[in-house]
Amino acid sequence: VLHCLPDAMADQADDAPALSEYAAAALAEFLREQEEAQRRLDALAESAAAAPEIDVFTEDWQLSQFWYDDKTAERLAEEIIRVSNGGRVACLSCPSVFMKLRKLEPDSTRFFLFEYDKRFEVLGDAFVFYDYSEPTALPASILAEPIPTVIADPPFLSLECAAKVSETIRVLRPAHILYCTGAIMGDTLSALLGLHECAFRPAHSHQLQNDFRCFTSYPSPLDTA
Length: 225
Known about the structure:
single chain; 7 strands
């Protein structure tokens, strides 16, 4: 059945705004990138790759996700490997460091990613679902023994978030803590966890406006950048 629009509705349809050629091309490119990212994610799930690239997972800014640049991820991963001395490592909300650790030690099962984003479930047993608002809701297998090294990069620059992530860190009972966040959280982290600021400055693939810093609970090469 062929339906005809009333004249008024037809006029409105004719007047509907159309995307400019530039906007249409940008939208098409965005949708193409999203489709490609999903294809790569599906392929990763099927292959169970040991060391996927962080680029497989597009940043979700609604979850306040901002990946480190490669140089930062590698420097932090190398420090974690140095200080952890073969022990278990928990990466709290910092998948780009986790991915770099897996790349440096592809056969290792000692690294765990604590993450809210369930896309990372493709990592299998290394994935630990983590909602910072429920700081101690963790698997018994994780809490059974201390995790000697923890690196954290919480999603929000707030006292509430820092306090709850600090609670998580305390139940993991680490000997070494690395914590990357905004410079404005320095006094808070000193009070909550006894951390000090390092000279090393983390950088991101996409430039952030926040002045980002690294804090640790122990003396390290990061202190002198």
